């Protein structure tokens, strides 16, 4: 939705290459934010995650083992 609303304006103002680089940079930024903010819960049971949340652990630590 955001791309649809901004693409043509950016294309007219910045040109093809710069529009591509803006969106590429935003993708890299959002990938890094996702890796930083979304906790790894691989091989962690839902019950363990729930226990950690009920203990008041930070969201980034919910997959940590006791």
Automatic annotation (TrEMBL):
TM spans, by residue? 20-38
Please list the residue ranges annotated as the Major facilitator superfamily (MFS) profile domain.
1-42
* Origin superkingdom: Bacteria
**What's the protein's topology in the membrane?**
Multi-pass membrane protein
Keywords attached to this entry: Cell inner membrane, Cell membrane, Membrane, Sugar transport, Symport, Transmembrane, Transmembrane helix, Transport
Q: Name one GO cellular component term.
A: plasma membrane
Q: Which PROSITE patterns match?
A: MFS (PS50850)
Q: Which is one GO molecular function term here?
A: symporter activity
> Is Membrane one of the keywords UniProt gives this record?
yes
Compartments it resides in:
Cell inner membrane
The residues the entry assigns to the signal sequence are none
Spell out the PANTHER family in the cross-references.
PROTON MYO-INOSITOL COTRANSPORTER (PTHR48020:SF12)
Q: What is this protein's name?
A: Galactose-proton symporter
Q: Which organism is it from?
A: Salmonella enterica I
């Amino acid at each position: 939705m955001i791309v649809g609303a901004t693409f043509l304006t950016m294309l007219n103002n910045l040109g093809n290459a710069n529009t591509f680089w803006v969106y590429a940079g935003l993708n890299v930024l959002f990938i890094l934010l996702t890796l930083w903010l979304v906790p790894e819960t691989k091989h962690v049971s839902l019950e363990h995650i729930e226990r950690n949340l009920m203990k008041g652990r930070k969201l980034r630590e919910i997959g940590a083992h006791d």
